[in-house]
Amino acid sequence: MPERRTITGFSNPTVKFLRSLRDKKHRKREGKFLAEGLRLLTDARLAGVLPEMLVMATGRDDHPLLAELESAVAAAGGEIVEMDEAVLSKVTGKDNPQAVAGVFAEFETSLSSIDRTSAPIWLVAQALRDPGNLGTMLRTGDAVGAGGLILIDDCADPFSVEAVRASMGAIFTQRIGRATWAEFIEWLRADEGQLVAASLREAVDYRKAAYRAPCFLMVGNESQGLPEECELACDLRVTIPMLGRADSLNAAVAGAVLAYEALAVLRQ
Amino acid sequence: MPERRTITGFSNPTVKFLRSLRDKKHRKREGKFLAEGLRLLTDARLAGVLPEMLVMATGRDDHPLLAELESAVAAAGGEIVEMDEAVLSKVTGKDNPQAVAGVFAEFETSLSSIDRTSAPIWLVAQALRDPGNLGTMLRTGDAVGAGGLILIDDCADPFSVEAVRASMGAIFTQRIGRATWAEFIEWLRADEGQLVAASLREAVDYRKAAYRAPCFLMVGNESQGLPEECELACDLRVTIPMLGRADSLNAAVAGAVLAYEALAVLRQ
After folding, report:
1. Residue B182 Cα, gap to closest chain A Cα (Å)
2. Which regions of chain B are under pLDDT 50?
3. Nearest C-alpha in A relative to B44
């Protein structure tokens, strides 16, 4: 059995460290993030990503996937820690915590590390504020075979517990880029790539548009939408029917409707 | 100027009543719900729905839409209440509350009150637990010209503040039905209507399916998906491509992808 360290007290430095990872500032300083739950950690393992530290509740149920995970972490030289469920509650901030959590090193998010030719579709979000929307976009990206999600300007943190959870494991399979708008557009135009957004401005029906790979599908901020500058820089502006009273869709929904349409066209 | 009642204390019964509406049990007992923000309340007004009570912060900015709202509520015999921002914070549970909120009577949600021929598309959610997903489905329903959202079995409360907010006003334009699965399927089969769900079971490509109005598009619980019984009862089972590692989409995203596909087919 791999070596395990047992933690009992709430004031243990490891507990404090783990709790601090719920905070964006600390995540950034440490370059680490937290993912909770056996399913998420198994998704990570199957994607070839192991936690640097595996945290397990002492009263957990045995599970073959957990045993596999523990062996893999130990074999990779990771740390394995056990703690009471009460202490784990403090770490996860939930009354009924998942029985297992992991600390991961944050991924490289520079645009220069992204190979745009590796996938036909890329999702792009500008000033997306809701971590749930961000995670949902990662999940959708995984489903449509996108290469990843590029975050423009001041977006929610993709390594927050909420975004990681909403991604349903796609945080481990999708590439993540982070850049300002100026950096992004310079990078995009240095090579081929079609930038597409939903818009009301001289736009074509999203069902009749000529999507081309690599296709970058961009959505904007939840309340403001996309800045004019971003819309105008697009190679293709499309309209999604809005038959009711509202004038926009949820950002993650708009991204998904575009992504599935582009996927259907690009697969033809 | 309409008559306004000013509330100063935190322990005022109206404040307690308003706060209690954040709780499902109290909403159910009172048959009322809370909607916050000038935009949401204006959406309601434009949809012909006025709050029974309009609550405004004393330090609010003047706004022509707020003046119109206040006049309309007063003309309809509604109550108008002013309170300090600090007191309003207690009501809304937010540090920076919207300057205005309204108390609405909950809508009729029996299936017998729904006219299925009034729209080509209806969304159906079974055991949907997340109020944000529920609100997002209402918002999508508005956009695709759906008639409403039918909630099967134990779903999140459509009148919760979170669901109302995520609906972006669609709570006031979409019909809401609530029923058990047995009640729903009996009601559905008593007249025409095609029941459709995403499924892996003997399913056809969702891009090649023969959607027929009135088309009921059903999604399942966030973690469990649809029970076998519900899938088997469908007239049409469709598959949405899942090219990545994950085996499902976010429930609200799946509903939206289906709804936009059905819309495109039904409009042809």
Report:
1. 30
2. none
3. A245
